[in-house]
């Protein structure tokens, strides 16, 4: 078998080398290869665009093709755009850009390659989207490449495009060889195209290592050598994992998104993929090792130090649990994951894989405890194990408290309760109910894992809340401060600004600052520009005081300012609820002061989210906080959903001390800032809602992993095609319910989604009608002719929390409530082409389409707008509320549906066992009765009152019992007659043997009486009479022996300890044998007839003594051991052994291998043991010796 392991290992190494060589030769990372692939994809898209352009004629049906997002077509006739396939291309200078003759240009915020075709007087253009170039990026605004270029999101920052020659740039040409632009790859660029065939080969090699390890351990008999292999394999795996992480090899695996580095490289796990691999290694090593370890439990040192050994194992388990807690804390703190799987809101692939890895790590605890209990079972009693484990857990809980370890009392209690349950399972319960305990243990593990993850996620949330509190207390916006540093650099380097200020042209300087230098797009700050000369003063309207201009700003900076790096900007911390920055610059005799005050965030959704840079930098934490600032106990400012009290005292807490408490369904963190100021940060309690529903998910995953073989399959040669009827019924029920719930869940989600969409569509139309009714009374809605309409639209937008756009009948934007969205190029100035067709050509009264701005999708509603003066337009509302509300409705519905499905699946798992048990119980009862049925015994009938298939089967069984009883009576009668005939024959034979010599002696005496004298006859008579008496005694002994066998004495059963009886019997033969060893386990009690048991033991010991030939030093060994709820008594000798041809007759009456005796001793022993419900047998080897064994049931205390 070790040869097989070597062959598998050799094949795995060859597979690894071949796979690595293939990857190196065909998938190596090379910039020239990347450029070739880039151009190849681009040229393929160009051919597609040219093919479509070739089909265009005088007009193009907008519905004739499924237009791609990254391939846009535009038609221009007489300098006017009349056809387009995507509104995003809308730009006021679109016609000039397309007719300029350039093949690569930037339109709006996107670079396009331009393909052309002219048909008569029409110019058709195909625009291939290459890359976005927004003024800033955020949660919904990202610079992506065209999908056809296959540049992953992770690599976008590593690929730059330039229209001019750059160092290390590669020229990209079109399919005709014309240069378009230059592309530069960053140092950290990596292709995401993992070859899944190579990936499967690497995984096959990885799994082969565990298969080889399993084979080696399985066929190694010495447990010390097994431990050596275990240590070697651990070191090998540790080295392999270090090599893989340090060099990120093999590349095919480390190109997968789950292997992106999340942790610091100083930590032993750097990604979710590494976490999963490492946990899988630990799980596999523990499972394989504990399944195959063969400890020599007779080792004297092990037996002598068994208590220390037991304590050491519990301590190792404790260390692993501490490491397990540390790992969860590490994962939760450093990874952007959410382990509240039941909520499904922030749950992605990373969260699911982390959840599975943590559960697998928890299963290692149960596997280890299970293996430890199996070891304890061979070395000590149940009570002893419980005492040792209890003492150790109490001690370890004190240690964890004293040294502030990750573990605490509940971790130690979990170790204790699992150990106790598994010990009860191993020591006390029968095999048929052991699985229930295993399932209970797995359920407890699920609870434990969820409690631990919730604990560390709560810690993470509190740490993030404290960090957020620090920002609020400092009243700083670190994201905006980065922009201020850039502005500082621009101001210091602007000679134009310096020139305007020095010549006194303050208006020109202010216009330059507002127009070019201070780009605040995406930042919610107002800017106040102040020029101060000597003697200038300021009138403060809020305090009605007059200050010197310079003195005022210098006083604020000196009192509350904190300089930002080495720039001229200062953050002003007053704890008034506002974020303020002041910049100070000196140009000759003039001081320039720039004051930036944060304005209240626009709480609308949709366009305000696009225009905000809030989420541009830093990661999303997934927590939605509310906060309030109190000064002198009065509310100064607040933000968020929670409605704060005007007075801080309403919370009922001491404002001088930090506190964390719950009130009004929120968790509040009260933080004293100074003697007069307090900050309160609040989080809704639904953040951790449904968290304990994760127990069901964890239990479900545990069951799936356990089906691999843990616990449920002691024999790991699993045959899935065969199984008990109970198992097949159970699996069928579970499978059927699972399929039904999957179908019903999918249908429920689909139907509810359709219903939600219909409801939101109706709501959008109602809003559209309301706006239409308000606008149709206006005389003008074109902002170019009547600019005041923009303000009217903005007011309606703020009131209704929607945005409003108005297009001409030609599809051009003429007015909007949010001009910035179009000025910054986030939206095009053209209407959706399909909406234009539906309203203008088909005459529909309303039309709803799906829109998209960056990564934000929404529902866009259109309707004709006809003014009272007869002019008609197209009214549009981008209904962003639908997106969030619909997603929230769908998420809530999915959460409820999926959680109900999981609950029902767990219930199905439990109830399927009960149903299967109920269905198969009559069959099992019938099976048990059939097993017990035997000729000559009492065969009981089955009581079953249901008239079903099983009832008919039971009826046939009962009929068979009646017929069998009749047959037994006839057979017993026949056997009794046959037995008496045989007994008579045996008795006649045994009596006939002494009668023959008696007859001959009497005949000899008669002849002697006639021939010999009296004295001589008397002497002979005495001799003959002695011999006759001896023969008569033999006949009496024969009669007694057969009498004993024919009628056994009635048993008087009692409960007694077998060790005492064995020792007493062994003392009778102590002096008759050179060496008699007695190894007896104490405290084993049985229910039997003490005297009959004594008779059996003495008979076996006597046989053992008599079997030893002359000239050989006799050795008899007696052992008594507990095994699986029974006691084994073994008596071994080193006698001649029993030949093969005689072994079948050894328990038959009248059979003996000795020259004396009736041969009934072993027959009587067998009959006694079987009457006690036990078993007796032997193993023998000729010339070596024989070992008889007796197996009896143990009486539990």
How many helical stretches?
29
Question: Looking at the chains present, what oligomeric state does this protein adopt?
Answer: single chain
* Poorly predicted regions: 615-620, 709-722
Number of DSSP strand runs:
32
Q: State the share of residues found in helices, binned by percent.
A: 40-55%
Instruction: State the secondary-structure class.
Output: alpha+beta
Largest sheet: 5 strands, antiparallel
User: Strand sequence of the main sheet, in spatial order?
Assistant: 2-1-5-4-3
Catalytic activity: ATP + protein L-histidine = ADP + protein N-phospho-L-histidine
Enzyme class: transferase
GO cellular component, one term: membrane
InterPro entries: HAMP_dom, HATPase_C_sf, HATPase_dom, His_kinase_dom, HisK_dim/P_dom, HisK_dim/P_sf, Sig_transdc_His_kin-like_C
Brief sketch in words of this structure:
The protein is an alpha+beta fold and 1197 residues long.
Description:
There is one protein chain. The longest helix is centred in the C-terminal third of the chain and has 63 residues, at 949-1011. The protein has 29 helices and 32 strands. It is elongated. α25 (949-1011) packs antiparallel against α26 (1014-1046). The chain is an alpha+beta fold. The strands form 8 sheets. A 5-stranded antiparallel sheet has the order 2-1-5-4-3. The model is unreliable at 615-620 and 709-722 (pLDDT under 50). It is an enzyme of class 2 (transferase).
Keywords:
ATP binding, nucleotide-binding, membrane, 50% helix, 5-stranded antiparallel beta sheet, 1197 residues, 7 domains
